[in-house]
Design a protein that fits this description.
Oligomer: heterodimer
Strand content of chain A: under 5%
CATH superfamily of the largest domain in chain A: Cytochrome c-like domain
Distance between the termini of chain A: 42 Å
Largest sheet of chain A: none
Helix content of chain B: 25-40%
CATH topology of the largest domain in chain B: FAD/NAD(P)-binding domain
Shape of chain B: globular
Structural class of chain A: mainly alpha
Shape of chain A: globular
Number of strands of chain B: 25
CATH architecture of the largest domain in chain B: 3-Layer(bba) Sandwich
CATH class of the largest domain in chain A: Mainly Alpha
């Protein structure tokens, strides 16, 4: 319906306007301005410092571990690995959920939106630092398409405007600041995410880069890259 | 729409599917959609369903899954159906009535069900016919009745259907009364008193009154903090009362000096016996309560149609065979949902849906001359104690010692924990459940 924050502000200001306003329902994507590089950098640098020990308590209290596992490695292929994820990226993700910027229309985001709405900046910083402190382990063994994928990841294919993933995500898929680590990522989640970028279901990146830089990839190549990253550790 | 969405229930029926269902000549005669009764083989059995709510709609769909050849007709009074489930959300402003409104168009076209919008006025169980207000007669081989509930206004002196339709809505069938109650809550004076009076057992949606009470308290907390809600209950306990009361403590100061919500048990005088509409006062076993808003949710019995057709016993409800949902009073007549006596199963939409599936299989098996299998029923009720605070109850049921009872250790209620996320997650699961459930029933 409407932006949650906006609605609560309106209610706060004018009690008697209530009959005109309905609570935000989780059926429509709120209108949130896309990130600019500068706004994102400013938001992340304004976050409080995280504490690993407190973050472990938050992970339990907010039941992150129920889906993502005790150290951020999930028990099933349904949920992303956040083990060893950069602190900045996890913070960005939680902020995106909280503000409704990340709101995939296929409803997978509902749980994360509600959890994020109930977390403070401090809790987000803490839990993000806890996951950043974990060591990334591989999800699966390398597959037959490892070398093919590695070539695409490291050099891209300029004939199709496919950029080298490693250029931003790191030579070992270790990530860099707000650019997420991809090493050890669950391949099903990776493929789903790429589809979401291509279908504009996910638009929480800066300047729509993920869609632009990877548009030329075939579904087979995306699968190969997913399997490649799933077999990395760092 | 994303490719990632689950399309299981959105598959188009192809011509080939139809030919498989009805035979080539029937398809040629009837066109792809809107299969008329002529489209079915002369020898095909005819199953007539009275009531196109959750029980009736689910039954039609799942009978089609179980038997491609049977003729199915639903006779429903109204062209549109508003689900009672989640209608408390309309009071709280989290849903609109439109979002809870469904029709039988998809059931009709996708599962080749004859849908008749008409009122049933009688049935002849010997001749196996049903008569409607428009004067049509329908012959059936099996009759399935899913008529919902009726209210026992006579249990409350001074309260009646007319008052419910005007200034004292019970809002326990979703519709105009739901909107009226919302309006009354929004317009209640600052510092006013509201009363919700839940019914005696058994009744539709056992957590419904307490979820509604929670929403009143949540609204008061935000917009009318000096107001008070009193729940006048004829009972000593209610479903999920442990997690509900914990939520009320956490969110609405329950049992504290400035509690937004107070709950009065039957033994403390909570049973409402009279309404004085002129002075907005209710009389209980424990004395009079004056209020600005009074929401009596009346005691209940089986739907009017079940009574008219003589399917109810002395309890006011319909006794059924636990293996098939077939009426114990009339052979080849089946009763689904709230009207049926299903022992430990609550009167919920989920239960009606589960019973409809069991019944569809039993009817299909009987028509094919097969033996009935042991049924497995299920129920889950998600309720909200606040917009972001869910509580649930769940069980799987089997027939044991002649009664429908929870199987093994399957029954459970939300545990009260100190984990912040637990009630938040349950509130999300509730929304997800509702979204999928209505798909299962109506599409």
């Amino acid at each position: 319906m409407k932006n949650n924050l906006l609605v609560s502000t309106i209610i706060g200001l004018n009690v008697f306007a209530m009959s005109q306003v309905t609570h935000a329902s989780s059926t429509e994507k709120p209108q949130v301005p896309a990130w600019t590089g500068a706004a994102l950098a400013e938001t992340i640098s304004a976050m409080p410092k995280g504490d690993i020990q407190r973050g472990q308590v938050v992970a339990k209290d907010m039941m992150c571990i129920a889906c993502h596992g005790e150290q951020g490695k999930p028990y099933t292929m349904n949920f992303p690995s956040i083990q060893g994820q950069t602190q900045e990226y996890t913070m960005k993700t939680m902020i995106d959920y909280r503000e409704g910027r990340r709101w995939e229309s296929y409803k997978r985001a509902d749980v994360m939106v509600k959890i994020a709405e109930n977390m403070t900046d401090q809790q987000i910083a803490d839990v993000s630092s806890f996951y950043a402190a974990q060591t990334t382990t591989a999800w699966q063994k390398p597959t037959a398409t490892y070398e093919q994928a590695k070539a695409l990841v490291t050099t891209g294919d300029m004939s199709r405007m496919v950029m080298a993933c490693a250029g931003c995500h790191g030579a070992e898929g270790q990530g860099n600041g707000v650019t997420p680590a991809l090493a050890g990522q669950i391949p099903q989640y990776f493929v789903r995410t790429m589809q979401a970028f291509h279908e504009k279901d996910r638009v929480n990146d800066v300047n729509g880069m993920m869609d632009q830089f990877t548009k030329g990839l075939t579904p087979e190549e995306i699968q190969a890259i997913a399997d490649y990253y799933a077999s990395l550790m760092c | 729409m994303s490719q990632l969405e689950n399309k299981t229930f959105d598959q188009k029926v192809t011509r080939r599917d139809l030919i498989k269902l009805f035979g080539a000549s029937a398809v040629a005669a009837s066109g792809i959609f809107g299969a008329s009764s002529q489209a079915f083989a002369k020898s095909a059995a005819h199953v007539v369903i009275l009531g196109g709510g959750i029980g009736g709609s689910t039954f039609a769909k799942y009978l089609r899954f179980a038997d491609a050849d049977v003729k199915i007709t639903i006779i429903e009074q109204y062209p549109e159906y508003i689900t009672c489930l989640r209608s408390n959300d309309v009071i709280a402003g989290m849903h609109t009535l439109d979002e809870l409104t469904f029709n039988l168009e998809t059931i009709k076209s996708k599962y080749h069900v004859n849908v008749v919008i008409d009122t049933v006025v009688g049935a002849d169980f010997n001749k196996k016919t049903v008569r409607t207000a428009k004067g049509d007669n329908f012959s059936y081989d099996k009759l399935v009745v899913s008529p919902g509930i009726d209210f026992k206004f006579e249990d409350y002196e001074g309260y009646d259907a007319e008052l419910a339709a005007t200034d004292f809505p019970h809002a326990y069938k979703a519709g105009p009364q739901t909107l009226k109650l919302r309006e009354q809550m929004l317009n209640m004076r600052q510092g006013g008193t509201a009363i919700i009076a839940p019914p005696q057992n058994p009744f539709r949606c056992p957590p419904g009154p307490y979820e509604r009470a929670s929403f009143f308290a949540e609204y008061f907390k935000k917009h009318n903090p000096t107001a008070k809600l009193i729940v006048l209950d004829p009972k000593e306990r209610f479903t999920k009362d442990v997690p509900f009361k914990k939520a009320w403590e956490r969110l609405y100061g329950y049992k504290s000096d400035n509690a937004l919500i107070e709950w009065v048990a039957g033994s403390e005088g909570g049973r409402v016996v009279r309404l004085d509409a002129a002075t907005k006062t209710v009389e209980t076993d424990g004395g009079d309560f004056k209020a600005d808003l009074i929401n009596i949710i009346p005691n209940q019995r089986a739907g009017v149609l079940a009574q008219k057709l003589g399917l109810t016993n002395a309890s006011g409800w319909c006794s059924i065979d636990r293996y098939s949902m077939e009426s114990e009073l009339h052979k080849e007549v089946y009763v689904l949902g709230d009207s049926a006596i299903a022992d430990a199963m609550p009167k919920s939409g989920f239960s009606a849906n589960s019973q409809a599936k069991v019944c569809a299989k039993a009817v299909a098996d009987t028509l094919k001359g097969k033996n009935l299998e042991d049924p497995v029923y299920a129920n889950v009720c998600y309720s909200l104690a606040g917009e972001n605070y869910g509580v649930s109850i769940a069980a799987v049921y089997e027939v044991r010692d002649g009664l429908i009872q929870p199987k093994g250790e399957s029954a459970g209620v939300s545990e009260v924990t100190e984990l912040t996320a637990q009630p938040i997650l349950e509130s999300v699961y509730q929304k997800n459940w509702q979204r999928q459930f209505v798909k299962d029933v109506f599409s």
